[in-house]
Amino acid sequence: MAICFLHLLLLPILLLSNLSPSTAQEKLSSFNISYSPWSPTLNRILVSTNSIFAAGFRPLPTNQNLYIFAIWYQNSSDKTIAWSLNGNSTVTSSSSLVISSSGTLELNDSTGKNLWQPTTVDNSPGAGLVLHGNGSLMFGNWDSFKYPTDTILPNQIINGTTLVSKNGKFMFVNSSKLIFNSSNYWDEHTFNILTSDGNITKTDDATPWLSADVGSSRLHRLTLDDDGNLRVYSLDPVLGSWKVVWQVIQELCTIHGTCGENYICMTSNGSNSTTYCVCPPGFRVRNTTAGEVCERAIPLRPRDSKFLRLDFVDFGDDNETQIQVSNFSSCKSGCVSNPSCLAFVFKFDGTETCIQLHRLIYGYWSPATENSMFLRVSDSDTSETNFTSMATKVNTICSTLISLPSPPKESNTTTRNIAILSTLFAFEFLIGFLSFWAFIKKYIKYRDMAQVLGLELLTTGGPKRYSHAELKTATNNFSNVIGHGGFGVVYKGELPDHRIVAVKCLKDVAGGEAEFWAEVTIIARMHHLNLVRMWGFCAEKGQRMLVYEYIPNGSLAHFLFHANRDEHEPGTGTGTGTGTETDTETGSVPVQPRPILDWNVRYRIAQGVARAIAYLHEECLEWVLHCDIKPENILLEDDFCPKVSDFGLSKLTKKEDKVSMSRIRGTRGYLAPEWVKMEPITAKADVYSFGMVLLEIVSGMRNYEFRRSSVDSEEWYFPRWAFEKVYKEMNVDDLLDGRIKHCYDSSVHFEIVDRMVKTAMWCLQDKAEMRPSMGKVTKMLEGTVEITEPAKPTIFYIGDDE
Ligand SMILES: *[C@@H]1O[C@H](CO)[C@@H](O)[C@H](O)[C@H]1NC(C)=O
Ligand SMILES: *[C@@H]1O[C@H](CO)[C@@H](O)[C@H](O)[C@H]1NC(C)=O
Ligand SMILES: *[C@@H]1O[C@H](CO)[C@@H](O)[C@H](O)[C@H]1NC(C)=O
Ligand SMILES: *[C@@H]1O[C@H](CO)[C@@H](O)[C@H](O)[C@H]1NC(C)=O
Ligand SMILES: *[C@@H]1O[C@H](CO)[C@@H](O)[C@H](O)[C@H]1NC(C)=O
Ligand SMILES: *[C@@H]1O[C@H](CO)[C@@H](O)[C@H](O)[C@H]1NC(C)=O
Ligand SMILES: *[C@@H]1O[C@H](CO)[C@@H](O)[C@H](O)[C@H]1NC(C)=O
Residue 776: what are its φ and ψ, rounded to 5°? Predict the structure, then answer.
């Protein structure tokens, strides 16, 4: 009985395995007249001499009786198709590929029609259809490289061809334009070729785009995907799987047609990897036979004058009209009096830009739009706008224009605590009302900046190139030094358009000018609210300089540790930040007391920094480790919004310098144990450094100066001591910054401080693999995941080995 049962189980397996080997696959190196005709049911393929590619009839996964004639990768696990004859058109099993006696190659469909176009003849003796090692299929002068489908292979000429995505929705034409339904959503450069090591060269610009694994010998392909993005993939030879190593569009929502009419495309939690479509307020989703559509809840009547405000929303329709107006209300009334106006945009940047929209297509949400959209709805519509997502996001990370009370004098009464708390509360309450005006004021103030951002960075997508002379003038002959860092000296300057900048002169930069330019372009492409923006660079006369936005408030270090200035700061690693002022180091300039950061601000800073690092680790296509996270590299804006600086710079330094330099540079106290133990450095090294910074944010002390116990200094290790306090003694109080301990109200602050400390404990785990990813850290800080008890950090810091 049991054997019988086993037999039944094995039967289908045996049948399956019997099927394929029974008719051994015939592998041709050339399909010539001796093999003609080739019917789809023959188990035959044409193989390239290097065995990488194969060509032949492939049944459709959905219908085994229909075939395409295709070229595919033999070594990829899903036998990825790189080309197919006539796009997706299929033939039945009664068709055949023949070489006629006259030497014509024909794909003879069942009606006798030749589908192999254009017609090709090769009369030479031994003529055959051959698949070359580079993936091109040739017969006579017919070459599959001239008729690509959705994929371009290395060294295949793109120019003069059109790629169409498999679903037929998107096109890439003239090697320069991405198109959906005749509307163009990308046209910044003209592609030349993809090189076999993963560069994409351009015809209009000497700097190639580099894929993340540039230089590797893996197989690369450039494909127009079904979501409308052009991506370079590289093949993992072991797993046989493809990995995205480059993509042309970073903000997927700017791809037209991602969402249907009236919808607004959003990216999940600010991440750029997945999109979803939201039907805006005043509209509703209705099921139709053709699927879901988003339509008005109440039809619009000509005189309706109600508008819902949608922050950071834009509709990508290019058929919009820009109107000259003098103020917001005339922009609004212009829309009301035009019955075809469905929405208007007014830019609060002082340009008085007023745009009317007549179609609500290609809508998306992105902080980069710097727009508010006013959506026209019926006067009887009662829906509330919930598109303030950016505003709430900004508020959780950086509340606008928070100003802090000055450091309290040494007196400590409950009444004053209550007074401070209620002032702060009243202040935060007021902010709600003031933020609109702050928004306008800020944008007028930064009008020039916004223009440059819009015109230079967002449109052309690259940093501006400055001449040495320009930067010399801007920095007043490099006279105003504002910092000395591991990467070089930082000067303050002012550009001709009055933007204040921090100019960083790099030392020990690896590689030539083109490589530098390419790297800088990548760094400049990283946009995040909590990363310092790079505006440009200079590569001239052997000099390498980077031009950053200037962050006025200086670094977090100055706010956290300034009261301890008399305790001498060791090392030279301080002040690397682009906006860091050295006044505290020189000591000659009297320093005005900086406000002491309150718990809410500290928590926001922690969250902002975590998000920025998570973005570097997880959301950039270029995988970026920071390698030097410390309070000096966290700059604070006027409103205490944190901005991480010096990211990506480790990529610019000479390879041989990297290890030794990092060991010295990655400032004492923040280095993960891997650095000292010479183990491989991964993203988890940044997580460790961030954990130290978190503890310092809470304690207001350098981790190596926080010695408040009888523990022998040789064995002192802050994380271990903190762990004992938090998990064994259950006494977080001992860790808190003494200067604001009196503001600590356990019912209000316990939750956030507890979260910061416990997250830090996970980040500071000895073993890299025990530490959470930066994305997880962000969630732990936010409180969206539970924080379990970590293992006790045990390593005591192996002194300074400089
Ligand atoms: C593909 O696989 C074949 C045999 O399975 C092997 O000889 C060849 O080296 C592989 N090619 C690549 C590029 O991995
Ligand atoms: C094409 O197929 C038709 C019908 O199957 C047949 O009559 C004709 O001879 C074929 N043509 C060639 C060139 O083989
Ligand atoms: C076709 O190719 C095979 C080997 O690839 C060869 O042996 C044969 O002679 C060729 N036939 C003709 C007619 O050239
Ligand atoms: C394409 O555009 C036309 C008019 O420009 C429009 O009528 C049609 O619905 C659009 N198709 C899609 C799929 O968006
Ligand atoms: C986004 O964040 C929310 C909570 O803030 C979470 O519930 C949701 O799963 C997140 N979505 C993604 C795609 O990460
Ligand atoms: C573009 O807008 C104008 C009015 O501004 C309108 O007449 C025209 O039909 C629009 N074109 C499309 C394709 O919607
Ligand atoms: C706004 O509310 C609608 C309906 O409740 C919801 O579907 C949509 O996701 C919300 N949008 C945002 C940005 O939260």
Answer: -65, -40
269 close to ligand 5 (CB < 6 Angstrom): yes
Position 789 scores a pLDDT of 86
- Could you say which of 628, 646, 686, 737 is catalytic? 628
Contacts of 578 (CB under 8 A, 6+ apart): 483, 490, 502, 504, 532, 548, 549, 550, 551, 635, 645, 646
DSSP secondary structure code for residue 268 in this structure: G
Predicted confidence (pLDDT) at residue 596 exceeds the cutoff of 70:
yes
pTM score: 0.58
Report the 10 Å Cβ neighbour count for 2. 6
When pLDDT is averaged across residues 469-495 and rounded to a whole number, the result is: 88
Structural domains present in the chain:
26-146 (2.90.10.10), 151-249 (2.90.10.10), 264-378 (3.50.4.10), 527-535+547-782 (1.10.510.10)
> Taking a C-beta distance cutoff of 8 angstroms, is the pair 326, 352 a contact?
yes
Pair 373, 353: CB distance under 8 Å: no
* Cis bond before residue 719 (omega within 30° of 0): no
Which atom of ligand 7 sits closest to the CA of residue 279? 7
Q: Distance between CA atoms of 388 and 459, rounded to whole angstroms?
A: 25
Position in ligand 3 atom list of the atom nearest CA 30: 5
Is 497 noted as a catalytic residue in this protein? Answer: no
Dihedral in degrees, nearest 10, Cα atoms 60, 65, 66, 71: 60
C-beta separation of 481 from 487 below 8 A? no
75 touches ligand 1 (CB under 6 Å):
yes
Cα 495 to the center of its chain, rounded Å:
28
Pairing of the two strands 500-506 and 534-540: unpaired
CB-based contacts of 290: which residues, under 8 Å, 6+ apart? none
Q: What are the residues facing 53 on neighbouring strands?
A: 73
Contact between 673 and 769 (Cβ < 8 Å): no
Residues with CB under 6 A from ligand 6: 319, 321, 358-359
For residue 319, give the ligand 6 atom closest to its CA.
Answer: 1
Residue nearest to atom 7 of ligand 5 (CA): 784
pLDDT tens digits for range 44-103: 999 999 999 999 999 999 998 999 999 999 999 999 999 999 888 899 999 999 999 899
- How far does residue 320's CA lie from ligand 6's centre (Å)? 8
Looking at mean pLDDT, say which of 34-43, 197-206, 511-520 comes out highest.
34-43
Q: Beta-strand (E) ranges in 300-401? A: 306-311, 313-315, 321-324, 343-346, 353-357, 363-365, 372-377
To which H or E segment does residue 291 belong? strand 291-296
